Amino acid sequence: MCGAPCGGDMSFDASNFLKSLTTKPGVYRMLDEAGEVLYVGKAKNLKSRVSSYFQKTAKDSKTMALVAKICDVTVTVTSSETEALLLEQSQIKAWRPPYNIIFKDDKSYPYIYISTDDQYPRLAFHRGAQKKKGRYFGPFPSAYSVRDSLNVLEKAFLVRQCEDSYFKNRSRPCLQYQIKRCSGPCCDLISESAYRDDVNSAMKFLAGKSAEVMEDYRARMDAASENLEFERAASYRDQIQHLRKIQEQQYVVGAGGDIDVIHAELTNSGLCVLVMFIRNGRMLGNKTFYPSNRLDENAGAVLAAFLAQFYLDDATTLDLPGEIIVNQVLPEKSLLEAALTERRGRKVSLRDRVRGTRARWLEIASNTAKQSLGSHLAKRDNLDARF
Fold first, then answer.
1. Which of 169, 180, 310, 313 is the most buried (most CB within 10 A)?
2. 129 in a domain, yes or no?
């Protein structure tokens, strides 16, 4: 702890400290006079990086304000840049330093779960660790987006959503059967094989094979109509309409794959980072973050900080996609790719130049981020005016 009043040159002997500082990779922590962490950073070369803060060359006013408060610097030497990146993120999470960009996130994203091992599988909302056997589809940006999708899926596929305890104790079909949201497997109103076909159709649809499912349902509708089974044909027609509704809501495209699209919108007034989830060619929605940016980092640095915090936190339940599209050239792109690939166990590509469908996704993310930041700033200004 430093007892003298803070003032970078007066209370911290940077020159003497830097003489003995290693050139190895690691993490550095800048402390104030109370010993509180002001800022955590990583470096390929600790000596070079920490020295840059104390050089006489012109620095922006916000960085100068940080340096003026430094009373001590501590470091942890690591064996690699990747190890330094991971340690940096864990320490940012632990101390939440005021000069770091902090993205508030609960790290737990909801999924749609199908209990495939059950005799009659169920559709369900799921959040947290994926320990139960079955298929998980997501992540979705919010609980609302999952429940909205489940609402339409049960109309389209008539797959049960009830708890197992409720399902096993039915002697008569419940209201869900009466309003055509379940096929009544609890009371043997559908054969096991026919029910399994509906479950498989639901999984195909969630896996991005919507065209195949729609074609199958059209064939069933036509066959029922030819056999003069008009009520059954009408039921298939309604199911097709429900599937179209999901497609319209989620901007379904032919291209498959799991991709996150991330846009950083940075203005003089504020900052917004938007992440859009694409799974199996289906846009599941987006989530926005409005962090402070006390050091006036550029958009590329903001995105790099976001990627590290969003994907490398041990507490996250988020599935890492194989491709992440960003709207800025990233500093230390290869380092981030290596860390993300190590975390996923398979290759992760970061791309800032895209065409076709991917460019359209990035355009949607850009427009949404601009609108979201505008609304956020308007709300903030309104609150400031009131109070």
1. 310
2. yes
- Cβ atoms of 303 and 326 within 8 Å: the answer is yes
Answer yes or no: do 124 and 237 share one domain. Answer: yes
Distances (CA, A) of 305 to 65, 196, 259: 21, 45, 19
pTM: 0.76
The amino acid present at 250, given as its one-letter code, is Q
For 235-255, write each residue's pLDDT tens digit: 888 888 888 877 666 555 555
Residue numbers of the domain that contains 269? 258-386
Cβ-based burial of 36 (10 A; exposed 0-12, middle 13-18, buried ≥19): middle
Q: What is the CATH number of the domain that holds 30?
A: 3.40.1440.10
In angstroms, rounded to a whole number, what is the distance separating the alpha carbons of residues 274 and 366? 8
Answer whether residue 105 is part of any domain: no
Distance of CA 276 to the CA centre of its chain: 7
Same domain, 177 and 246: yes
Q: Which of 232, 250, 268 is the last residue of a domain?
A: 250
What residue ranges in the chain does DSSP mark as E strands? Answer: 26-31, 37-43, 72-77, 110-114, 123-127, 135-137, 258-266, 271-279, 282-289, 323-326, 349-351
Domain with residue 329: its CATH number is 3.30.420
Please indicate, yes or no, if residue 47 is contained in any of the structural domains.
yes
**CA 168 vs CA 87, 180, 308, 387: distances in Å:** 49, 20, 45, 56
C-alpha closest to that of 289 among 301, 277, 306: 306
Q: Residues 209-236: pLDDT tens digits?
A: 887 888 888 998 999 898 888 888 888 8
Are 271 and 265 within 8 A, CB to CB?
yes
Amino acid making up residue 368 = T
